[in-house]
Please model this.
Amino acid sequence: MLIKLLFIVLLLLMIIYLFRALPLMLKAQSSPPLSHYLGRRLLIAIILFGLLVIALMTGVIQPNPNPYTL
Model:
């Protein structure tokens, strides 16, 4: 349950950094560079992917074996 909560928090952080970069993309000059927010978003995505792989390999979360059956 804790790992799923961590995934949700990381996904929300990715969305927050995406929307924080949006006004900087619309303006010509900005105090923090645009790559600051997009780089953090990329770092969060890498961490999220790594945690997902580790959780799958250790058996903390189970993938759906056949997603097309009810």
Summary: The chain has one domain: 2-26+33-58. Helices lie at 2-26, 34-58. The chain has two helices and no strands.
